[in-house]
Amino acid sequence: MGFDERAGYFPAMDERELSLAVVGITHPNADKARSNRRFELALCVPGEPIDLRPEPKNPHDAHAVAVFSVRGTQLGYLTAERAPWIGGKIKAGEEYQAIFQEAGATSAVIRLRFGGGAPALPPRRDPPGPPDDFEPDPDGPEWGA
What we know:
By secondary structure, the chain is of the alpha+beta class. It contains two helices and six strands, in the order E-H-E-E-E-H-E-E. The chain has helices spanning 37-43, 83-91, and strands spanning 17-23, 49-54, 65-68, 74-78, 96-103, 108-114. The protein has a single domain (17-120), classed as Alpha-Beta Plaits, CATH 3.30.70.2330. The N and C termini lie far apart (51 Å).
């Protein structure tokens, strides 16, 4: 099951699904235990449930949507560009399911589906390697080594 070039999407995925960045993973949580977001992120497994919680009383952004792991520990927030739209749909009672997709160096990615049903994880991307014509520069006196 690969990318369908004629349709322009992966067949197992649905247009009601989207991948969203989770930011703020380097900040400590404000709970009494000062739980560590990076540590919690390391425990997350692709496909496990994620909870989204709008925070209308957030002092920095009334549209903020916090992202919590299945263990109830905050991982971060949806980006400021996406939070108003996602938070609005959640507040309006639209049914959704979210799952953990992957971790990155400075953010994480979750998969969200509106309208019922479980979201599908997209195929894993391998990190890009060096180009086929890559040749490292030689070390030597011309470089002042």
